[in-house]
Specification:
Elements (H helix, E strand, L loop, with lengths): L13 H23 L7 H30 L3 E11 L9 E13 L2 E4 L1 H4 L6 H8 L3 E10 L7 E8 L6 E5 L22 E6 L3 H7 L3 H7 L5 H10 L6 E11 L2 E4 L11 E3 L5 E8 L7 E5 H16 L1
Antiparallel strand pairs: 1-2, 1-4, 2-3, 3-6, 4-5, 5-6, 7-8, 7-10, 8-9, 9-12, 10-11, 11-12
Length: 315
Amino acid sequence: METSQPGPSHPPSLRALLAAALAGVALSAGIFFASTHWRPKPTELERQVHELSTELKQLQQEQQMPTTVLNRYRNSICYIFGVYRVSMPHNETKPALRARVAGTGFVVAEGLLATNRHVAEPWFGDPEAEELIRDGGTPQLEKLLAFFPNMAQPVQLSPVVVSPVHDLAVVRLAEGESAKLEPLPLADQIEAPGGLVAVVGYPMGVAGMVAKSPSPVYERLAFRRDDAGAASELAALSLIRPSATYGHLGDVVGSKLVYDAPTAHGGSGGPVFDLHGQVIGVNTAYMDGFTGGTLGISVGALKPLVAVARQHEGN
């Protein structure tokens, strides 16, 4: 019986060897990629796209910030109207002084508002009033009222504590009127100059609110000289509405903030917000003729005053 003999063996072709080698490399690379979650290094174009996307997101956040803080905290930011006098009981040669004050305040704790000292004690910084006081005059508040959005009636205010150093004060709301008012968040630190800020308040006071009211209301109140009466009518019509302006923080010098967000008489005492929607200061003054010269007092000077006021409230 014949048996078959194996044929002569042929060496594998170069093509076969190359195919086997590539298959091995691909298998090894697949195992390596799967085990290390390898990601290709981003190209220069991809890096630029990522940077532009980040900048665009930040720009959108900056543009939305004033609207966001105004919509969220509007109801906790009030218009303040007051009347004060300096009487001269022992000096008949000098007439007594009687004047009005307008400003802004905001809720910092239950039952407590922050504002400027020259709003809570309007004779502070008033040269005429201070001269009378030096001559023996007695300053006194006749009324200090807070008008809040969504409140039809004003709330009585009374000073709790004023700063002996800064133009800051904390005042008390009448009992039972603050439970539904959200305190504004106070920042732990102030970022470097250059960042966006928003100032919320009542620039031009009643005149500013009347100016932006519907035509029938404007025509009725535009030439009315009774600010308290006009404010009460605006409150009854739900037209107590703060305004927001924004700009950039120009400098921080000690407890003083400098920024270019516009303001006007009546905006004193309003909150100054940073990009994150936290209060970094209290709006205080502006320098005529210099758009970048709006001044505020740092939240670092406000917090100790709030702590003292809360202790007074607890006693």
